[in-house]
Design brief:
This protein is mostly helical and 144 residues long. The protein contains 6 helices and no strands. The protein starts with a helix and ends in a 10-residue tail after the last helix.
Length: 144
Amino acid sequence: MSRLAEIYPFLTEAALLGLRLLTAAVFITSGRSHAKDLAAGSKDLGLPKVTVALVGWVEILAGLGVAFGLLTRLSAIGLMVIMVGAMYKKIAVWHTGFWGEKASGWHYDLLFFLIALLFLATAGGSWTLDRIVLRSVPGAGSFL
């Protein structure tokens, strides 16, 4: 039984890393498509081009932050803000249900909001650049 208990911390860190990398892949690719074609993104999201560019760059930068575990909590907050905006748009503006048509409901956005909340709560786990870089900085423990 003690051997199994030794595996749990490793599995937890591996799961957090996998979730961080998958989340980053989703947001970085989404952000690239928004930032690359502002006209299409503006039409698709129903937002001004400046807002689409901002959303795209937040997705890219926060996705990179989550992937590398650098400024993880700040990155998580950025992703949470994006997801709150997406849920608001789907619920209040487009009147999309939880499941939506063709799986385009706000369940997807809620899931990524909660994943980002997990990163905020755990600082992304122990396998982050934040932990490596800030471990030697006095007083950084409260940030982590």
